[in-house]
């Protein structure tokens, strides 16, 4: 990983959530949620609509504060927040319609402190290299999602927080995403993904919201 790490490095990374509770709009979304995910591991967050899957990812990203509980990251840069060491891929693809595919990726590289020279390789990896000069406004929903995914690999961060990452992707796009996630885990990265179904990662743990906390199974 390109991020600075303390002794032990990313291979010792561990993300721990303890006794988490979340309130949104005056409503308690969940309480007593706990999880532990280490380097090279994935946690699939499942549950019915409204159970708090997206809210949990936003808590980890630092976009929402928990009502109670703690989220701690061990084995990475102590000077950076968890959010600064994570990519959050939400429902919105966060693209500027007037900018080209390459310009959008360059914008995010500059904003997040990445290497803009990795942009073309990232576009090739998601199958958008031939559309590099096309304004994002002309992309299909699936192509927009591919461009959002390209940000994950163009700018190295050890934690991926993915909210329904395969939404709008066709079969080929889903297979591409699965291979990218496997490569990230093989490089000792860490993934939390909210999804209504399997995401193609054998051995991923499952945390199902809307039932007893920290009930996890192997997929």
**CATH architectural label:** 3-Layer(aba) Sandwich
CATH T-level fold name: Rossmann fold
Categorize the overall geometry.
Answer: globular
Question: What's the SSE pattern?
Answer: EEEHEEHHHEHEEE
Largest sheet: 6 strands, mixed
Unreliable segments of 5+ consecutive residues: 1-9, 212-219
CATH class (first level) name: Alpha Beta
Number of helices: 5
The figure for the number of domains is 1
> Helices and strands: which structural class?
alpha/beta
Q: For this structure, what is the CATH homologous superfamily?
A: P-loop containing nucleotide triphosphate hydrolases
**What fraction, in percent, of the residue positions are helical?**
25-40%
The radius of gyration over CA amounts to 17 Å
Mean pLDDT: 88
Strand content: 25-35%
**Span between termini:** 27 Å
How many extended strands?
9
Strand order of the largest sheet: 5-6-7-3-8-9
């Amino acid at each position: 990983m390109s991020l600075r790490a303390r002794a032990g490095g990313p291979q010792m990374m561990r993300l721990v959530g303890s006794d988490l509770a979340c309130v949104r709009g005056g409503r308690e979304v969940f309480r007593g949620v706990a999880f532990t995910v280490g380097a090279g591991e994935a946690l699939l967050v499942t549950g019915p609509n409204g159970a708090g899957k997206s809210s949990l990812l936003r808590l980890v990203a630092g976009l929402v504060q928990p009502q109670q509980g703690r989220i701690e990251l061990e084995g990475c840069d102590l000077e950076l927040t968890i959010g600064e060491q994570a990519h959050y891929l939400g429902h919105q693809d966060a693209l500027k319609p007037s900018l080209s595919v390459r310009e959008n990726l360059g914008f995010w590289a500059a904003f997040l402190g990445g290497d803009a020279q990795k942009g073309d390789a990232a576009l090739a990896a998601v199958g958008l290299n031939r559309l590099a000069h096309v304004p994002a406004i002309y992309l299909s929903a699936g192509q927009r999602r591919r461009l959002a995914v390209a940000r994950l690999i163009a700018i190295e961060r050890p934690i991926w927080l993915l909210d329904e990452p395969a939404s709008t992707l066709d079969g080929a796009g889903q297979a591409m995403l699965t291979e990218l996630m496997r490569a990230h885990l093989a490089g000792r990265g860490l993934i939390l993904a909210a999804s209504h179904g399997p995401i193609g990662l054998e051995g991923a743990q499952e945390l199902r919201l809307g039932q007893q906390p920290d009930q996890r199974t192997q997929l």
